[in-house]
Specification:
By secondary structure, the protein is mainly alpha-helical. It has helices spanning 32-36, 72-78, 81-90, 96-107, 116-121, 129-143, 153-178, 192-201, 212-224, 232-242, 247-258, 266-278, 284-292, 313-328, 334-347, 350-354, 361-371, 379-400, and strands spanning 4-8, 11-15, 17-19, 25-27, 56-59, 64-67, 70-71. The strands form 3 sheets. A 3-stranded antiparallel β-sheet has the order 5-6-7. Strand 1 and strand 2 form a beta hairpin. The structure holds s-citryldethia Coenzyme A (SDX).
C-alpha cells in the first residue's frame, strides 16, 4: 500500500503504511518529529497504536474477540483457564504433555512464604482487596527476588508461573484475613478454579468440596477476562515494563489501573447500582435519565466501550451464563431481572443508540460472582485474576520485541512562557 503523505506549511513527509493480518491499516509516524518537528495529539490514545501485537484481535464493530486467533466463544466452551493462559503466553494451544507440565509447574508454586502473612495483616481489615492485591503483587519481588531479570527468559518464565500460581493464594488469603478466618492452603489434587474456591470458601472445621457448577462458571469467567489488547491496565503493564522494571512491579501497576471504576472497578459499581435500584433508591428510568444528563457525573456502569460499538462478545456469553448458573444453583436473584430491564431500556433509548453504548464485560459478571458466593468488593480482584495471563503475555511480547522503546509520550505545552523569578513580597 502506498505511503500516506502529510503536508503542513512548507513541510511534507511520507508516512509508511503498516497493514495488520486482519487488514487493519496504521500510519507509521515514527519519523514525524525527527523529520518535521511536528507531533500528534491524541487524548486517550483513541487513534494511536503504540505497537503491533499478536496476542488478541478485537473487531469492535462486529463484536469479535480472539486470543491468538481462537474465538473466545470456542475457548470458553471447551478450554481450561490454564490452557488459555498457556495459549496467551506461548502463542499456541498446548499439547497434552505440555499442558500437564505447565499445570504441574503452576501447582507447585501455589504456596506463599509464611512471612507473607505479616504483609496481609499489616492492612486494616476493611482495606479494599485491590489495594492489598496490588501491594502484595509488588511485594512478591522482595519475597522471590531470584528471578526478576526481565531480559532472562528462564527468569521470566519462572516469574510468570509464580504469578499465575500465587495470585489465587494471595486473593484467598486477603479474603480470609478480611473475614477474620484462618488461611486455607492450596491443595495439589484440585484444578485451578476448584483450588481457588477451596482456599476462599473452605474452613478447617468441616470438609468442603467445590461445587463443579461453580468451578466451571469461574473457569469461563476467568477465560473471558484473560486478555483484551491494549486496554488501560495492559498499557500500564507495558509502560512500566518498557522501563525494564520486573514483571511483579509491572503487573502491580496493571492491578492499580484496573481498580479504577471506569475500567475493571466497574463490575463492583454495577452491582452497587443494581442493589440501589433493588432497594428502591430510584427506578430504571431515573438511572437512565441521570446517565443521559450531561450535568450529572453518573454513568451507567457496565455500559459503553472504547472499542466495542456493538455488543461486547464477552457480555453476550456472560449474560447467558448468568441465567444458566442461577438456574443450576437454584438462585432467584432479582438483580438479574433489574439488569435485563436496564439493558432493554437503555438499548431502546436514542442516547445510547446514537453513541453505540452496549453492555460491556462488567455489566453481568457481578451477578455471577455474587451467585458463586463472592462479596461485591472482591469482584475486581476476580477480574484481575482472569486478566493475569493477558497482562503477562503483553509484557512478554513487549520485552521480546526488538523495536520496543521506553514509553515516553510527547506533550503540547500550554503553560506560562518564560518569566523571571520574583522573591515573595
Ligand atoms: C473495561 O479497554 C478495554 O478493553 C477495557 C475492558 C477490558 O477488557 O480491559 O473491556 C474492561 O474497562 C470495560 C469498561 C468498564 N467501564 C464502565 O462500564 C464504566 C462506564 N463506561 C464509560 O465510562 C465509558 O463507556 C468507557 C470508559 C468504558 C469508555 O469511555 P470512552 O471510550 O472514553 O467514551 P467517552 O467517555 O468519550 O463517551 C462517549 C460518549 C460521551 O457522551 P457525549 O460527550 O458524546 O455526549 O458516550 C457517553 C459519554 O458521556 N457515555 C456514557 C457512558 N459511556 C459513554 N454515558 C452514560 N453512561 C455510560 N456508561
Amino acid at each position: 500500500m502506498a505511503d500516506a503523505v502529510l503536508r503542513f506549511e512548507d513541510r511534507e513527509i511520507n508516512l509508511p503504511v503498516i497493514e495488520g493480518s486482519e487488514n487493519e491499516v496504521g500510519l507509521d509516524i515514527s519519523r514525524l518529529a525527527a523529520e518535521t518537528g511536528l507531533f500528534t495529539l491524541d487524548r486517550g490514545f483513541g487513534n494511536t497504536a503504540e505497537s503491533q501485537s499478536q496476542v488478541s484481535f478485537i473487531d469492535g464493530a462486529a463484536g469479535i474477540l480472539r486470543y491468538r486467533g481462537y474465538p473466545i466463544e470456542q475457548l470458553a466452551e471447551h478450554a481450561s483457564f490454564l490452557e488459555v493462559a498457556y495459549l496467551l503466553l506461548y502463542g499456541s494451544l498446548p499439547t497434552k504433555s505440555a499442558l500437564a507440565s505447565f499445570e504441574d509447574s503452576v501447582t507447585r508454586h501455589t504456596l506463599l512464604r509464611e512471612d507473607m502473612k505479616k504483609l496481609f495483616e499489616a492492612f486494616p481489615h476493611e482495606a479494599h482487596p485491590m489495594q492489598i492485591l496490588a501491594s502484595a503483587t509488588s511485594a512478591l519481588a522482595t519475597y522471590y527476588p531470584d528471578a526478576l531479570d526481565p531480559r532472562n527468559p528462564e527468569a521470566v518464565d519462572l516469574s510468570m508461573h509464580r504469578l499465575l500460581a500465587k495470585v489465587p493464594t494471595m486473593i484467598a488469603w486477603l479474603y480470609k484475613y478480611r473475614a477474620h478466618q484462618p488461611y486455607m492452603y492450596p491443595r495439589n489434587d484440585l484444578d485451578y478454579s476448584a483450588n481457588f474456591l477451596h482456599m476462599v470458601f473452605s474452613i478447617p472445621a468441616e470438609p468442603y468440596t467445590p461445587d463443579p457448577v461453580v468451578a466451571a462458571a469461574l473457569n469461563v469467567l476467568l477465560i473471558l477476562h484473560a486478555d483484551h489488547g491494549q486496554n488501560c491496565s495492559a498499557t500500564a503493564v507495558r509502560l512500566v515494563g518498557s522501563g525494564d522494571a520486573n514483571l511483579f512491579s509491572s503487573v502491580s501497576a496493571g492491578i492499580h489501573a484496573l481498580s479504577g471504576p471506569l475500567h475493571g472497578g466497574a463490575n463492583q459499581e454495577v452491582l452497587d447500582m443494581l442493589e440501589e435500584m433493588a432497594a428502591g433508591e430510584g427506578d430504571v428510568s431515573s438511572y437512565i435519565a441521570r446517565a443521559k444528563d450531561r450535568n450529572d457525573p453518573f454513568r451507567l456502569m457496565g455500559f459503553g466501550h472504547r472499542i466495542y460499538k456493538n455488543f461486547d462478545p464477552r457480555a453476550r456469553i456472560i449474560k447467558q451464563a448468568a441465567t444458566d448458573v442461577l438456574a443450576k444453583l437454584r438462585i432467584d436473584d432479582p438483580l438479574l431481572d433489574i439488569a435485563q430491564e436496564l439493558e432493554a431500556t437503555a438499548l431502546s433509548d436514542d442516547y445510547f443508540i446514537e453513541r453505540k453504548l452496549y453492555p460491556n464485560v462488567d455489566f453481568y459478571s457481578g451477578i455471577i460472582y455474587r451467585a458463586l458466593g463472592f462479596p461485591t468488593d472482591m469482584f475486581t480482584v476476580l477480574f484481575a485474576l482472569g486478566r493475569l495471563p493477558g497482562w503477562m503475555a503483553q509484557w512478554k511480547e513487549l520485552k521480546e520485541d526488538p523495536k520496543t522503546r521506553i514509553y515516553r509520550p510527547q506533550q503540547v505545552y500550554s503553560g506560562e512562557t518564560e518569566r523571571a523569578y520574583q522573591p515573595p513580597s
